[in-house]
């Protein structure tokens, strides 16, 4: 018998929030000082997903700059700019607010797990959905391995008092699919985000959906 799902962990960028313009706005400014960019939205779809440090490294590399010294400086600049502009043109995807309301109405816990820095993750989530709306918010922290490590997801499960079989994980990249699988969760790929169906399938998605409300079929 299928175990009832008691919680959903959401990725943030490309799953809950359409945030690519904020990422592009901040990263373009940071790497421009080293003669790189600006880059297209499509390029940023593939720069993101593995934390802010990897985002900056990929943007610099795309511009032909692989100097470690430049990375350290560019990363510091990016973090300063992003701290002030993490909500630039950010909005929830269509159907997300309705999905969250339905889950909460069914008594299902909701959480966010992001490779975005923790303070900015909290800022974005609370700006879009309100303080206290999510049961747990977990962004990138120095003492926690980034996705696809399941460490962040296990911390969320511990706080909720649940086990992996009671968890549904929703994200838009192969990194998210691997995170969900590494956690032991039922893992769903979101087609409205930054990556395509092929990547989600190759990442091991248990299911793939084209609209947020389709997630309700699996809880």
Features:
six-stranded parallel beta sheet; single chain; 9 helices; 8 strands; 219 residues; alpha/beta
> Which bin fits the share of residues in helices?
40-55%
Distance between the termini: 14 Å
Q: Specify the oligomeric state.
A: single chain
* SSE ordering: EEHHHHEHEHEHEHEHE
What is the count of helical runs? 9
**What general outline do the C-alpha atoms trace?**
globular
User: What are the low-pLDDT stretches, counting only 5+ consecutive residues below 50?
Assistant: none
Query: What is the topology, as strand order, of the major beta sheet?
Result: 5-4-1-6-7-8
Major β-sheet profile: 6 strands, parallel
β-sheet strand percentage: 15-25%
**What Rg do the Cα atoms give?**
17 Å
Overall pLDDT, averaged?
A: 96
| Class by alpha and beta content | alpha/beta
Total number of β-strand segments? 8
